[in-house]
Amino acid sequence: MLSLAALAGALAFCWPLIVVPSASLDGNTQSPFVFAALLPVLLGIVVSELSRGTIDVKSLAMLGVLSALGALARPLGAGTAGIEFVFVPLILGGRVFGPTFGFLLGSTTLFTSALLTGGVGPWLPYQLLAASFVGLGAGLLPRAKGWVEIAVLSCYAAVAGFAYGILVDLSFWPFNLGLGTEASYVAGAPILENLHRFAVFNLATSMGWNLGRAVTTIVTLVLIGRPLLRILRRAARRGSFEEVRRPVTATSTP
Does the entry feature the keyword Membrane, yes or no (predicted)? Predict the structure, then answer.
C-alpha cells in the first residue's frame, strides 16, 4: 500500500514531463483531484496497518502529538529565507517509527499547520506529498548510533531540504511561469529539455530557500537531535508501529 502511495505521489509531481497537459488544466484545477486522491490513500494506509497489527491506538496518539508539534514549529521561522523547523520532527519521527509512520506524519503535520496558519490553497496537496516523502525517506535510512546517526540524519536533511523545494516547485512550474522564457515549460518537449528549463527556474527562484531549509534542519538536528531521539524511542516502547529504529549496539557472544 505504501509503495503504491509513493508511486502515485511521484506521478502527481512528474506527469507534465511525461504527457502533454491539457490547455484547460492548470495547477489550480488539478489540485482538488490530487487532494481527493490523497485522503483515501492515507486512510487506506492507516486501516491496512491496523489490520496487520503494526499500529495501535497509542501509535495513532503519537502520530497526533508529533503532528501537532510540527504544526506549531512550522510558523516559528515563518518561512523566512527558508528557515523552517518542521522538518526536524518529520525526520526524527520517520527515523524512530519507520517509513509508514513518516509518510503519514508528513501529510498530517503539513495539513494541521495549514489549518492553523491559513495556508490552505492549491499548493497544499503537493506540500503534503512532498513532506510525506521526507518522512518516508527518513524511515528508510540505515541503522547507526551516536553521532554517526546524527551525521546520517544531517546528510539526509540536506538532501531532503532541497528535494522538498524541488518537488513543490515542480508542481506549479509548468502552469504558473508563463511562456517565452528560458525557464518556461514547453508542452511536448523532450524530457531533458524541460528538466533543463526547470533547473534554471529552480536555481533562479528557490535555491536560497532550499539552502536555508537544509541548514536550519541540520543545525537543529546537531544541537538537539540526540536527546529528542532518546525521548521518542522511550515513548515508542509504550506503543507499536512497525519496528522502532534503535541505534546499533554491540552484541556479546556467549
Answer: yes
Over the stretch 29-47, which tens digit does the pLDDT of each residue have?
Answer: 555 566 566 667 766 776 6
What one-letter code names the amino acid at 181?
T
The C-alpha atoms of residue 65 and residue 77 are separated, in whole angstroms, by: 20
- Whether the pLDDT of residue 166 is over 90: the answer is yes
Q: Can you give the pTM of this predicted structure?
A: 0.84
Looking up cell 518522512 gives 135
The SS3 of residue 146 is helix
Alpha helix stretches (DSSP H) within 118-145: 124-139
Q: What are phi and psi of 177, to 5 degrees?
A: -80, -30
Please choose, from the candidates 107, 133, 96, the residue with its C-alpha nearest in 3D space to the C-alpha of residue 3: 133
Cα–Cα distance for residue pair 60/150, rounded to 1 Å: 26
Q: Which residue has the cell 508563463?
A: 178
The type of residue at 134 is: V
What is the CA angle 27-74-117, rounded to 5? 65
Q: Among candidates 85, 93, 169, which has minimal Cα distance to 135?
A: 93
Please name which of 168, 7, 161, 154 lies closest in space to residue 95, comparing C-alpha atoms.
154
Candidates 164, 97, 109; CA nearest to 133 is 164
